[in-house]
Amino acid sequence: MNDDLAALGARIDRTNELLQRMLAEVAKTPSTHAIFVDAGYLYAAAGRLVAGTEDRRAFDLDAEGLIDALIDKARTIFADSRLLRVYWYDGARRRIHTAEQQSIAELPDVKVRLGNLNANNQQKGVDSLIRSDLESLARHRAISDAALLGGDEDLVSAVEAAQGYGARVHLWGIEAPEGRNQAEPLLWEVDSQRTFDLDFFKPYVARRTAPAYDAMGTRPTREDVRFVGAQIAAKWLAARGRESLVELLPGHPYLPGSVDQDLLVEAEGLLQYSLRGQADLRRALRDGFWEHLQTLY
Q1: 146 and 167 in contact (C-beta within 8 Å)?
Q2: What rounded mean pLDDT belongs to the chain?
Q3: What are the two backbone dihedrals, phi and then psi, of residue 218, each rounded to the nearest 5 degrees?
Q4: pLDDT tens, 267-294?
Q5: Preceding amide of 177 cis, omega within 30
Q6: What is d(CA 244, CA 297) in angstroms, rounded to the nearest whole number?
Q7: Does an H or E element contain 37, and which?
Q8: What is the spatial distance between Cα 160 and Cα 158, in angstroms, rounded to a whole number?
Q9: From its phi and psi, is residue 166 left (phi > 0), alpha (psi between -120 and 50) or beta?
Q10: Distance of CA 294 to CAs 157, 230, 249, 252, 287, Å?
Q11: Nearest to 91, CA basis, from 57, 122, 128, 132
């Protein structure tokens, strides 16, 4: 009898030891988050808020700058977590990328997923793509938190599916000039809700008017733009000092939204050429900025 109790006690001790090891491993595993952007909602709500229209043809959206701003915001909110990637959901006829969608797809840490676009320019299949990705990533424990920028009631099932596998879903919205632009059932289901205001989106949305710089003129080379990025970095460092650089370096290769927007505006002034929608030149600009700072430290 005593031998049986001793054996049982030994098995319990071994089980407890294994559980402690598992808990220790889980504690060491970093949290991971992903950002899911319903581009249809984004264009409509941000266009209405900043440009006064939902018609995509009437305004320009600096998607690259905005994505960087969203990544920067997520880094602040999920401080102890790493980014998996940004998922960008949009519609396209026959699911063929437009030039703008292609430039977004080329951005680092961004995955573009396309639904169809019908004759009335309505997205079809986007909600099911969001649900599929959310559910799959949560089921495989690839993410612990999901930031969902959207407002359609059809997304409720996607939220429920992800939560069923233990992921937390955080709904991000865009300020509505009047009323509400997110379905109430969606607001009820998520784990948290956050709304971004006019000041957040204003740097990235602009009504289409006569361009400030001639985008159709002589296109600068990547080296030209890289050199301008280095020039601006030298000026930035002289104005702000090393303390600001220490705060900036951990975010490499991303820049905070405000810094990135200032970099873009100043570079366009120096080049007298618009870099909006020029993903390769925007990357060259950032490369030049970072390379100058990193050669000094």
Answers
A1: yes
A2: 83
A3: -70, 120
A4: 888 888 888 778 888 888 888 888 887 7
A5: no
A6: 13
A7: strand 31-38
A8: 5
A9: left
A10: 46, 11, 9, 10, 10
A11: 122
What are the pLDDT digits (tens) for 41-68? 999 999 999 988 888 878 889 999 999 9
Q: What are the tokens at 272?
A: 């007298």
**Tokens describing residue 94:** 């026959």
pLDDT at 68: 93
22 or 44, which is more confident: 44
* Nearby residues of 273 by Cβ (< 8 Å), 6 or more positions away: 213, 214, 215, 217, 218, 219, 220
Average pLDDT value for residue range 135-158: 94
> How many residues does the structure list for the chain?
297
First to last CA, the chain: 70
For the full predicted model, state whether its pTM sits above 0.70.
no
- DSSP 8-class letter at 48: I
The tokens of 282 are what? 């925007």
Vertex 183: Cα angle to 53 and 132 (nearest 5): 100
Work out the widest C-alpha separation in the chain, in whole angstroms: 93
* CB atoms closer than 10 angstroms to residue 106: 13
Q: Distance between CA atoms of 114 and 39, rounded to whole angstroms?
A: 10
Q: How far apart are CA 224 and CA 228, in angstroms?
A: 6
Contacts of 117 (CB under 8 A, 6+ apart): 91, 92, 93, 123, 124
Residue 161: band (very low, low, confident or very high) from pLDDT cuts 50, 70, 90: very high
> Residue 52: phi, psi to the nearest 5?
80, 15
**Integer angstrom CA distances of residue 57 from 60, 175, 189, 257:** 8, 21, 34, 24
